[in-house]
Design brief:
mainly alpha; 73% helix; Growth Hormone, Chain: A; transmembrane transporter activity; MFS_trans_sf; cell membrane; transmembrane helix; 3 domains; 489 residues; single chain
């Protein structure tokens, strides 16, 4: 339930140069760039709402199409990977193609994908194709707002508009969850494909308010590198479906990616990043911990509906405290950083995540209130985690390379999250009861959900131990890193 900023820096550094070369808020064309902000922010929120709707609608979709949890999860996992990769691609394209034209492309893909999904809603294969096409468009609209404001604003004004994106993410996630819950209960989950069609109403405003100019400063996009990342992530997700030959492309793509980074100066990520101990250590922790992020969000509606028989509209209401507290925590991250150093904040956040999942694991059979409390604690934990863990990653990163480093860091988050959904869905399909004795009460549904929650507790604790060990070693061996790690900012 935490939103990694869709930073365009992975694609190029043109945004900063553009902002620096013209007066703040006024491009060389003389057109006031602020006129486009409301339109782009609306599209940003609207597309996030649509994306969240489908993340939360897995349970009714599975029931309607008689799908296993692992199968239905594909409409969230594969599209999650596409969102992460699409963010990088569209960020790069925005340096050589006008944002207005990219928005037209985005809307076209959203409409086509939504029509495919609605017309073919009786077949999951067609639904999945529709979701993939639709998401290719959603990725653009979700990314281009951030790209636009970083190109046209700087200083305090830039921070204000980026702040809007963080607040909007929490708002959109809440709206999407509520809308999907009520539609699935009172109408049909298939109507989720009709909502995106409303985006065509924005076309006149895009034409009149979003500029058609372009700086032509692109340094290109590493298509091959992104393709390999996509193969690795997709292969892992598909491997978790049936544990067959999908491990082969994962291994091959990983070897090719390492070779590509080492031999290509224009690769997706600088080879020196992998010798930067704080950065590579943080990436390992990010991959572990952020797999838990969407895992619990995906499991939550299945668990509440399965154990307590609650309708989806009521389940969606239970997420409100979590989103509100998560947004509040993220908003207070600056104040927190003045009281806790990065090491303390990350440790506290990971402990909160483990405690939240443990509370859910213990009380899932007997208390909906406990599940709401657990989700709220979980949201607070991730709201607290993002900034200090990012800070830990960049301890020894040269300023000139920090933009690309942040971009690749966020890409790892976007890859790890759907992988977490994949392994959670796999466990839900197999219904293990290894840790059923650790929950209060007992039921057939509750026992295996409790086991999965305790499995997620274990993954979180592994992340905590790995963080303390790796950064403890860095702290002992590098005085500069130790000073920055324990500094309150």
């Amino acid at each position: 339930m935490n939103h990694p900023e869709k930073t365009p820096d992975l694609a190029s550094g043109a945004g900063a140069e553009s902002a620096a070369s013209t007066p703040a808020g006024r491009p060389a064309t003389g057109v006031n760039p602020r006129r486009a902000v409301p339109v782009l922010l609306f599209l940003f929120i609207f597309c996030l709402v649509v994306d969240q709707c489908f993340k939360f609608t897995s349970q009714p979709m599975a029931a309607a199409l008689s799908l296993s949890e692992s199968t239905v999860s594909l409409q969230a996992t594969l599209t999650g990977v596409l969102i992460g990769i699409g963010a990088v691609v569209y960020s790069a394209l925005a340096d050589s193609v006008a944002i207005r034209k990219l928005l037209y492309l985005s809307i076209g893909l959203i409409v086509v994908g939504s029509v495919i999904g609605f017309v073919g809603s009786a077949s999951f294969g067609v639904v999945l194709v529709g979701r993939v096409v639709q998401t290719a468009g959603l990725a653009a609209a979700e990314t281009l707002y951030v790209v636009y404001v970083t190109k046209h604003f700087q200083g305090v004004e830039l921070k204000k508009y980026l702040g809007f994106s963080n607040m909007s993410f929490q708002l959109a996630s809440l709206i999407g969850t509520l809308v999907s819950g009520f539609l699935a209960t009172y109408v049909s989950w298939t109507w989720m494909f009709l909502i995106p069609l409303l985006i065509v109403l924005s076309l006149p405003f895009i034409r009149t308010r979003v500029p058609d100019d372009v700086a032509h400063t692109s340094s290109g996009v590493d298509v091959y590198g992104l393709f390999l990342v996509g193969v690795i992530a997709t292969g892992l997700i598909m491997f978790m479906q049936d544990f067959t030959w999908w491990w082969i492309p994962v291994v091959v793509a990983t070897v090719l990616f390492v070779h590509h980074v080492r031999t290509n100066s224009r690769a997706l990520v600088d080879a020196s990043f992998f010798t930067n101990r704080p950065y590579i250590s943080a990436l390992v922790i990010v991959f572990i911990i952020y797999s838990v992020n969407l895992a619990f969000v995906f499991l939550f509606p299945f668990a509440i509906h399965g154990v307590h028989g609650m309708a989806m509209d009521k389940v969606s209401l239970l997420t409100i405290p979590g989103y509100v507290l998560g947004a509040s925590t993220a908003a207070m991250s600056g104040a927190v950083s003045r009281r806790l150093d990065s090491k303390q904040a990350v440790t506290l956040a990971l402990c909160l995540l483990a405690l939240a999942l443990a509370v859910a694991g213990v009380f899932i059979n007997v208390s909906v209130v406990a599940m709401v409390v657990a989700m709220a604690m979980f949201s607070v934990g991730f709201g607290l985690l993002y900034a200090p863990l990012m800070s830990s990653a960049l301890l020894l990163m040269p300023a000139a390379k920090s933009g690309v480093a942040v971009g690749f860091y966020n890409l790892v988050i976007n890859v790890a999250s759907p992988i977490g959904v994949a392994y959670t869905a796999m466990l839900m399909s197999s219904k293990p009861t290894w840790f059923a004795g650790l929950s209060v009460g007992g039921s057939a549904e509750g026992d295996y959900f409790s086991t999965i929650l305790w499995f997620l507790v274990g993954i979180t604790l592994v992340g905590l131990v790995v963080y303390r060990v790796l950064f403890g070693l860095i702290e002992r061996n590098n005085a500069k890193a130790a000073e920055r790690l324990t500094a309150q900012q």
